[in-house]
């Protein structure tokens, strides 16, 4: 694949690995958090960890949209889908995430709810046009990357005069979550889990630009390198972080210059600002309530807001107490520290947020890295 | 109605009711298309003379949606899928049965097209469709057409293939490019407006499997990596043979178009279905002979050696990534669904 293979080239990877090994001072640790699930996925899928020295440690952050959606919100979506006359549309990997009482959208569909997988918000608009007698609800989740398409759909529904289309909005904001992690008591007080630097989001930054990260670099004195999702991007960004840490710098650097600018996509940002406003507070699975970390539809678009249209009531869901996801998401524990990992909690039966999607830290450990997680019995056998 | 035509009209409940409509459909569509001496349409069973030896039997239901996709349709798939399951046992397929569940309202022209491609696929594979059944369900209770086929084949003498046969050191081969079928079908599914020039690899593998067994009778096992893709087959082999498997990503044959589509849809070609590929495990000293035999066949031109079996108490499947790292290739959990971002 042209323009992709270049970013997965093994010889470049080896050269970068050698440079990281040469520059990462052996007498200290480099604890780097990749915020995005896309980075977590790339690190495991391409085996990036094998190319890093032991003292460069990746901490897998909460940037997986499916993982951080609280069960209560998923329960609300499932309940909505079960209402007669409703067609609930969702992106694919939301479908099998388990809610309360072992429910999921896939199970609800098997039991008769009309739930459609869509690849684009405009598919949901088309469904609304084709089914004027039904209520079509788009189950909107994701970070700044998926928010503009939802805004486009709302504007399109308004322009087309659709009265049977609405959005169940769960869009969340990256900078608020990073602030929350850095301000968490675990991070501030416990020396042991300090994060030395951040691999900044790729696609999210295409929209919001590199500017919003200036705050962390300044306020928390942490270097941030915005990184592309290809493995060479990740390696190069790690090298850039190692250099900043060595030199005592805490700046925002942009490795992903082929897509990210300082100010981002002005048109997308304007559209989002026109359609959405900040929520005072929103619950993140694994992080708890985070102030000003999510969006809702503005009053002008209230007619398209499923929460107002259907008087949806949040349920009460309880997380498994033994689940270590809150610590794992902050880098205070690794998946194998959790008593549930690989036993009660697997990709087939996920109990915590980090196991529900390939982009979650626990699922990635389970799927790609169990050999490393378990004692390496292979060599012993050979 | 002397010559029923199937260019217009739709399937009606009467087509499955046992009366004249059903008899016409059977005689003028199925029997005419499948044309062979064992299928008369007059008996409740086919009676075949079967040579002595071991028989392989396999049955499979086909529900693919959409029923027509680039490179094939549900009919070709129903024949080839079962032929392949029989062939993977080291057997030469001889006969097939076919059972149809039709949804009321299915255009007869569509049914005729599906039946026509079944007939064509059977001819290409060299098997006869010798008996069958047709039922019609009310509109809304089916998805156009479901087909179940059962295949019978004669197992080659001296050949004993089993997923349990693999031993450390054995070599794993794949007969061609991975993921073509899954991407071709996915591209046509509702919800994805996705145009590719990828066509399904849907094909009967009995000829290719026979060529491999002719060259390497010591072949340990063969599997066709359909649902769950290469990853599922390798994990099945690892578990059944109680070994680990190590594969090399840069050895995997994957078309650029399939790799690109998977990239966009967030899929992993290792988990995407194939309908015309086989995975073979052979003793290490036979690997090059096996590779040459596969490549000499039109369906195996892009065959490759992709890895080997090794001692591993955990029975893990691992891949050396083209990037230079290592990763596990685990079973898929649930259905592979496109990622969000």
UniProtKB/TrEMBL annotation, chain A:
GO terms for molecular function: 4 iron, 4 sulfur cluster binding; carbon monoxide binding; iron ion binding. Keywords: Iron, Metal-binding. Belongs to the HypD family. This is Hydrogenase maturation factor. It holds the Pfam family HypD. NCBIfam families: hypD (TIGR00075). InterPro entries: Hyd_form_HypD, HypD_1, HypD_2_sf. It comes from the Bacteria. It comes from Jhaorihella thermophila. GO terms for biological process: protein maturation. The keyword Metal-binding applies.
TrEMBL record, chain B:
Belongs to the HypE family. InterPro entries: HypE (IPR011854), PurM-like_C_dom (IPR010918), PurM-like_C_sf (IPR036676), PurM-like_N (IPR016188), PurM-like_N_sf (IPR036921). Gene3D superfamilies: PurM-like C-terminal domain, PurM-like, N-terminal domain. One of its GO terms (biological process) is protein maturation. This is Hydrogenase expression/formation protein HypE. Residues 167-318 form the PurM-like C-terminal domain. It comes from the Bacteria. It holds the Pfam family AIRS_C. Residues 43-155 form the PurM-like N-terminal domain. CDD domains: HypE.
């Amino acid at each position: 694949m042209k323009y992709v293979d270049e970013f997965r080239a093994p010889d470049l990877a080896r050269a970068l690995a050698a440079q990281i090994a040469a520059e990462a001072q052996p007498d200290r640790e480099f604890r780097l958090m990749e915020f995005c699930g896309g980075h977590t996925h790339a690190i495991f899928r391409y085996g990036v960890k094998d190319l890093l020295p032991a003292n460069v440690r990746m901490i897998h952050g909460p940037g997986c949209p499916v993982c951080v959606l609280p069960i209560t919100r998923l329960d609300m979506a499932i309940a909505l889908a079960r209402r007669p006359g409703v067609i609930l549309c969702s992106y694919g990997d939301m479908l099998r995430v388990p809610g309360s009482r072992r429910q999921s959208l896939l199970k609800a569909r098997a039991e008769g709810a009309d739930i459609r997988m869509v690849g684009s918000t405009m598919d949901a608009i088309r469904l609304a046009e084709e089914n004027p007698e039904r209520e079509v609800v788009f189950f909107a989740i994701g970070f700044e990357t998926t928010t503009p398409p939802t805004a486009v759909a709302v504007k399109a529904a308004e322009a087309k005069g659709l009265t049977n289309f609405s959005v169940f909005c769960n869009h969340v904001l990256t900078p608020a979550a990073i602030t929350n992690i850095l301000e968490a008591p675990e991070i501030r007080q416990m020396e042991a889990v300090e994060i030395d630097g951040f691999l900044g989001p790729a696609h999210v930054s295409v929209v919001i630009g590199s500017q919003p990260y200036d705050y962390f670099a300044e306020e928390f004195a942490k270097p941030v390198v915005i990184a592309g999702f290809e493995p060479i991007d990740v390696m190069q960004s790690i090298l850039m972080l190692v250099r900043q840490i060595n030199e005592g710098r805490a700046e925002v650097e942009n490795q992903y210059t082929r897509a990210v600018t300082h100010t981002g996509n002005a048109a997308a940002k304007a559209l989002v600002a026109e359609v959405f406003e900040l929520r005072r507070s929103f619950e993140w699975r694994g992080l708890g309530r985070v102030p000003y970390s999510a969006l809702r539809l503005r009053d002008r678009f209230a007619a398209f807001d499923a929460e107002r249209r259907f008087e949806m009531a949040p349920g009460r869901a309880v997380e498994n107490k033994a689940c270590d996801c809150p610590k794992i998401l902050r880098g205070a524990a690794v998946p194998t520290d959790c008593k549930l990992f690989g036993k009660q909690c697997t990709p087939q039966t996920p109990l915590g947020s980090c196991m529900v999607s390939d982009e979650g830290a626990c699922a990635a450990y389970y799927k790609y890295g169990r050999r490393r997680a378990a004692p390496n019995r292979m060599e012993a056998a050979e | 109605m002397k010559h029923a035509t199937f260019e217009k009209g739709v399937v009606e409940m009467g087509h499955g009711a046992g009366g004249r409509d059903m008899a016409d459909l059977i005689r003028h569509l199925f029997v005419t298309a499948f044309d062979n001496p064992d299928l008369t349409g007059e008996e409740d069973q086919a009676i075949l003379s079967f040579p002595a030896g071991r028989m392989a039997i396999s049955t499979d239901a086909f529900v693919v949606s959409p029923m027509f996709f680039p490179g094939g349709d549900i009919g070709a798939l129903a024949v080839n899928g079962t032929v392949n399951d029989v062939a993977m046992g080291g057997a030469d397929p001889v006969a097939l049965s076919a059972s149809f569940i039709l949804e009321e309202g299915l255009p007869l022209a569509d049914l005729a097209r599906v039946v026509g491609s079944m007939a064509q696929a059977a001819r290409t594979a060299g098997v006869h469709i010798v008996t069958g059944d047709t039922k019609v369900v009310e509109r809304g209770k089916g998805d156009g057409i479901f087909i179940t086929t059962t295949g019978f084949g004669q197992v080659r003498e001296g050949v004993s293939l089993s997923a349990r046969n693999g031993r450390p050191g054995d070599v794993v081969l794949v007969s061609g490019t991975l993921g073509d079928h899954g991407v071709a079908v996915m591209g046509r599914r509702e919800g994805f407006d996705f145009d590719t020039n990828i066509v399904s690899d849907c094909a009967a593998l009995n000829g290719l499997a026979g060529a491999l067994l002719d060259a390497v009778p010591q072949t340990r096992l063969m599997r066709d990596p359909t649902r769950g893709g290469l990853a599922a087959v390798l994990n099945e082999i690892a578990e059944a043979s109680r070994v680990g498997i190590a594969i090399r990503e840069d050895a995997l044959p994957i078309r650029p178009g399939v790799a690109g589509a998977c990239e966009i849809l967030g899929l992993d070609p290792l988990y995407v279905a194939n309908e015309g590929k086989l995975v073979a495990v052979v003793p290490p000293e036979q690997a090059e002979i096996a590779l040459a035999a596969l490549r000499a066949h039109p369906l195996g031109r892009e065959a490759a050696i992709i890895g080997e079996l090794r001692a591993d108490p955990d029975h893990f499947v691992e891949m050396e990534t083209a990037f230079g790292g290592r990763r596990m290739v685990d079973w898929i959990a649930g259905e592979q669904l496109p990622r969000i971002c």
